[in-house]
UniProtKB/TrEMBL annotation:
Species, as recorded: Komagataeibacter medellinensis (strain NBRC 3288 / BCRC 11682 / LMG 1693 / Kondo 51)
Top-level taxon: Bacteria
InterPro entries, per the entry: AB_hydrolase_fold, PGAP1-ab_dom-like
Descriptive protein name: GPI inositol-deacylase PGAP1-like alpha/beta domain-containing protein
Gene3D superfamilies: alpha/beta hydrolase
Pfam family, one: PGAP1
Amino acid sequence: MSPYMHAGGTCLSTPSSLRGAQVLNLATMKRTKTGMRPPHGARAGTRLRLACLLALSGLAGCAGPVSVRQVSLVHSYRESIRSTLLGGAPSDNTLIVLRRHALLATWRAHPDRAIAALRAQAAGHEDVGDVLFALAELSYRQGLRHHHAPDFLAAALYAYAYLQPGQAGETAGYDPRFRQACDFYNFGLAAALGTPVTVASGTLALPFGTIDLVADPAQLRWHGRVLDNIRPTATMAVSGINNVYRTPGLGEALTAQARPDPAVTPGSPPVPDTDASFSVSDRLRVPASVLVEMDNPRAQVLGTQLHGRLVLRVMAPDTATTAIDGARVPVAYDQTAGRALALVDTALGTKEYRGFFDGTTFDGTRPRLVAMTPHHRGNMPVIFVHGTASSPYRWASMANDLLEDPRIRDHFDFWFFSYATASPIPYSAWQLRQAIEQAVAELGGVAADPALGHITLVGHSQGGLLARMLVIDPGSRLWDGTAGRPLSSFHLDAKTRALVKNTMFPTAMPGIDRVVFISTPQHGSYLAGMSVARLIGSMASLPLSLSETAREIVTSAARDSPNLRNTIPRLGSVYAMSPRSAFMRTLPTIPIVADVHTHSIIPVCGNPRDLAHADDGVVSYESAHIPGVESELVVRNSAHSTQSNPVTINEVQRILLEQLAAHPNLSPPTTPWLAGQ
């Protein structure tokens, strides 16, 4: 045995005195090669030195020097968060457990054997928490390798046992493994429960046994609706919305479709009447979360016959946390994915251009006013009205951001109006009025809920003109200014005369407190006056009933003015929004009623010093500006479609909070009130 080896064979460092011996030995060897034969004593010393040199060479081969090197902060952080959640090697914490239990080599060669051996060693071991975390991570890695649901479920249960929420000695939040264990639990459930998620009692397989889950079927009924088509959001990527909001916590984040429950109103159809003007969307989706809870999880998870509960939570102020063994545990939700999927499911975005060119798109085929959430007593409606060749999709980012403010989410309901945007503005405004009246009536009226009498209209572009039509009392001024002669001079049948009265002789609608005009051509759009825009406008069709009415009006007028015979297409919104049209010259002269609060949000391209010559690419500042509004915000460096601009969104938020402050005594939201209940 070398004098520089431990008894166990461990290499020692080379003494500094021997390093000189190496040099001397080399010099002696050199002299021998040149023919200088050393004396006998020298030869003996040479042999000794050569033996030492060979020993030292062996020592150098088995040396394992400890080193420290500088790394970047980015590298350091990347190493600290490495885990199988990213699809690669296990975290350092798990590798430490494998080494300390002499299972690292087994893991690399036979992963399932390593997990089984580690599981067998966990019971009663002082580092059981460390072992449970390692088992969660290693099981998750096996799930990724083999796409095996039992492995993912095992990962979730091990992680739950590691966290042991509500138990004495539960993991501290400062431990970086805490957040990773939450993710192993949440993502493990997402992979194990599949798509769609079935919330029902049953037995699920595990690599080491089974778990019997109990689920209360009453969880699937939510405020008069049945929850189904429950889908995980972990594998959904949302685009087209500025910000994606998630609520951190425990549980698999879901989006659940909430369909009307026929049991609530016997004899009612399972989906809303499609001829109605108002509906809580039949494709309403709500953010939800599902948890698998176990009693005494650390003892159970090391057995073979496990028992637990499948708990479904729908996002609401009282479900932000869930009670587990006496502790309040935050619940994970993905609210933006649910909102986005609800918009996609309604397919309203596919009707943007069809709704412009085909005037029958929304006539008797689907609700024109859609609520994306059930109405809560005490919540004030906010009605969003889109512009030309547009749809409710254009409000997605604004609604998503506004709903993240709990003051707005808990005190307002968002409704979205759709219409054929090439139809005459007075006709579309009349449809909006009808839809609002029907919605308020279906929800019990103002007598049942005073909040329904405090409506805010938010209109973009042409939508702002529709909103304005609901807050004026023009008498005959609008008709006379547009038609050029009194209605009494036209020979019309009763049906046609009634339609004209409804559309061209509006009155201020009760219950509208506030109007927000965004990019609204109050004096017309210069773009609408261009020949190309007028050509496109001529391609749009009008609703059949409106075409017949227009034909009768024109026929009657043509008796005195033959040149009016071919002007039916010019009744459309594109012609009306031209600054030269009689309608647009008349509407701005009619004041908004005094008790309605009005606000203007006006985008302009660039950062002009002189607003008199500024525009947003469609509407000039001078056209959008009207005197007498309570507030006017100019959004610089913004084009016409400013609904997603954060400055615009912040201003709408400020206005809604102002509306809330003006009505502090409305009943707080409690139980949702659905149409038909």
